[in-house]
Amino acid sequence: MIKKVLVTGGAGFIGTNLVLKLLSEGSNVTIFDNLSRCGSKYNLDLLRKSAPKGKLEVIVKDIRQKGVFDKLVNTDAIFHLAAQTAVTTSVVDPASDLDINILGTFNLLESVRKNKSKAVVVYSSTNKVYGSLDYLKHSVLMKGISEKTNLDFHSPYGCSKGGAESYVKDYSRIYGINGVVLRQSCIYGTHQMGVEDQGWVAHIGASAILGKTINIYGDGSQIRDLLYVDDLVELYLKAIGNYKKVSGMVFNVGGGTDNAISVEDYIKFLSKYLDRNIKTAKRKIRPGDQSVFISDNLLVKKVLDWEPKVGYKLGLPKMLSWINENKKIFKKL
Fold first, then answer.
1. Which of 143, 228, 280, 306 is placed for a possible disulfide with 315 were both Cys, Cβ 3.0 to 4.6 Å?
2. Could you tell me the CA-to-CA distances from 156 to 107, 133, 229 in Å, in that order?
3. How far, in Å, CA of 28 to CA of 278, rounded?
């Protein structure tokens, strides 16, 4: 059990699942969130109801404020999940994307450094740091991308997340901070209130359940490896428990080749699951989109003996069942 934990972005999708797990194991959890994310207030209500008395503290502030973490970092673990998470939003407003993702992360690391915190910092990064990967053959992409692949920060979002993870890695090297970077692929699961720009698995699932037309950007052949959120949470906790092994390291994390699925095939899955046709509309492909991204997971398997347990044929019905139970919320989003 981790005694004392700080989770930035703790009312978001991944944060909610992580905090529920931590609370169930008896941890004292501080959530830091500005509640700007769609659905975060619903998640926060759930967390408050689920938390044992005195085990949950909620701080509603912005990570861009200098010194805002100074009194919070003397803890056992910090999961830094707060971020601007949409490629499309970063293209429209790159300045805010930079401030949130780079300056916000810098503020956290500086507080850890200045206060000589021994906390283990887990940073949630993204596969978007690899760019479009259009120089690689389809056959190579389908085998999985390793951490040795060249970085190419395509889109402001890729730049800001890549810059932030570089700070985490270098603060571990220069200042001895216990930081680890997880370059996450496509995470999905319960409590994901996805929108069109981010969280596409839940967004498309909810749209199908509600009978809405689903926009398909490009031809729908884009492939992603789906990772169920419970598997990611397990990895987060493994990283904390083995921080001496992983400090300063970067890992690709995804569902792997066994959980790779195209947007088009996901639509077919939904049609079969719901036993009806799904309404779709083709749109122009968006900037920075990868035709294929699959994480090979070999390094994280070697170092932490971790691999996905929940295949998408099991995980997707779990998520869709949860969406169906919460249709009233999704109608308001």
1. 228
2. 20, 16, 26
3. 44
- Tell me whether strands 178-184 and 250-253 are parallel, antiparallel or unpaired: parallel
Q: Does residue 203 contact residue 267 with C-beta atoms inside 8 Å?
A: no
Q: Which of 157, 167, 188, 243 is catalytic?
A: 157
Hunting for tokens 């053959």 — which residue is that?
137
Cα gap 200→321, rounded to integer Å: 16
Q: How far apart are CA 17 and CA 230, in angstroms?
A: 7
The span from the first CA to the last CA of the chain, in angstroms, equals: 35
Give pTM, 2 decimals: 0.96
Instruction: Give pLDDT tens digits along the chain (333 positions).
Output: 899 999 999 999 999 999 999 999 999 999 999 999 878 999 999 999 999 999 999 999 999 999 999 999 999 999 999 999 988 899 999 999 999 999 999 999 999 999 999 999 999 999 999 999 999 999 999 999 999 999 999 899 999 999 999 999 999 999 999 999 999 999 999 999 887 778 899 999 999 999 999 999 988 999 999 999 999 999 999 999 999 999 999 999 999 999 999 999 999 999 999 999 999 999 988 776 889 999 999 999 999 999 999 999 999 999 999 999 998 888 877
Single-letter code of the amino acid located at 308: P
Round to whole Å and give the CA distance between 132 and 100.
23
Residues in the chain: 333
Helix extents (H) in 51-115: 87-92, 94-98, 104-114
Concerning whether 157 is annotated as a catalytic residue, the answer is: yes
Burial (Cβ within 10 Å: 0-12, 13-18, ≥19) of residue 242: middle
- CATH fold of 4-332: Rossmann fold (3.40.50)
Phi-psi region of 39 (alpha: psi -120 to 50; beta: other; left: phi over 0): left
